Amino acid sequence: MNIRRIECFLMVVDTGTVTAAAGQLFIAQPALSRQLQTLESELGFKLFDHNRNRLQLTPAGREFVPMARLLLSNARLVQAGAKNIATGHIKRLHLAATPATIRGLVAPFLATLPPSAPLILTHEAEHFHIHDQLRSGIDLVISPAPCGEEFASQLLGMIPIKAYVPQSHPWAQAGRTAINLEELLTQPLILPSTHSVSRVELDLAVARAGLQYSSVEECDEAHTIQALAVSGHGVGIVTDRPRYGAYGLHIQISERDVLGVTLHAAWDRQHYGTGTLETLAEQVRTYLATARQLPLSELGE
């Protein structure tokens, strides 16, 4: 099937008329009409009906639209992959992660890369369905959940969940670096909702310890949580780095362990740039270990 004809078909769908589509594609209107007629012949069904000088998708045409988009997307991926294979390196990568992971890990990591590194473009995704992004043109995902056998993966390590207070708080005045759960739960807390992985991890830790919250307010915006903490409305719990002069403390859940979110990188095993993705995942792993000042052995194999 000719990919150019698929492009023509989708352009007509998106613009609504052959005239508008021809202008976008920089071809003559009769030539575009012939492309559509040829595509209909190849498919064996009509794509459009004429309705008052406008083209209207037939039921079969509507069914074909998502298939055509998938075909065009895959064809472009193949073209890009072939070009990158021929040149020996990948120039551009698309990475999906939760907003908190992008803010707290990915963006700071990207700031350390040299200009010669691939251009890495980030895309926000919900952690519940993040691995589905690998089936939609995303090259690499960083997720708090391990992936199945379908994808290649790399354990990156743990990003800590911090308790933030104002500089005037007794914990900050004492120069403390960590607090335990019992101490934390005596305070009014400002938490993300249960849609957040960090909230789920905190809830599990509280339940395992047989403890209960005393006072909780919920907010799903990490910057606001820190701002409210700094203004004295409660202890803010986020994985983000400190802002607005907030003082951060680790949350101790045992003698050796602090509360955090474990992160994994995953990618398609058949990706043309597997070598580059493996190297990138290892670089993120090393960066995370260095940022936490932990040896790689503590992050797992």
Automatic annotation (TrEMBL):
PROSITE patterns: HTH_LYSR (PS50931). Residues 1-58 form the HTH lysR-type domain. One of its GO terms (molecular function) is DNA-binding transcription factor activity. Keywords: DNA-binding, Transcription, Transcription regulation. The keyword DNA-binding applies. Pfam families: HTH_1, LysR_substrate. SUPFAM superfamilies: Periplasmic binding protein-like II (SSF53850), Winged helix' DNA-binding domain (SSF46785). It comes from the Bacteria. The keyword Plastid does not apply. GO terms for cellular component: protein-DNA complex. InterPro entries: LysR_HTH_N, LysR_subst-bd, WH-like_DNA-bd_sf, WH_DNA-bd_sf. Belongs to the LysR transcriptional regulatory family. PANTHER family: HCA OPERON TRANSCRIPTIONAL ACTIVATOR HCAR, TRANSCRIPTIONAL DUAL REGULATOR HCAR-RELATED. This is DNA-binding transcriptional regulator, LysR family. It comes from Pseudomonas linyingensis. The lineage of its organism: Bacteria, Pseudomonadati, Pseudomonadota, Gammaproteobacteria, Pseudomonadales.
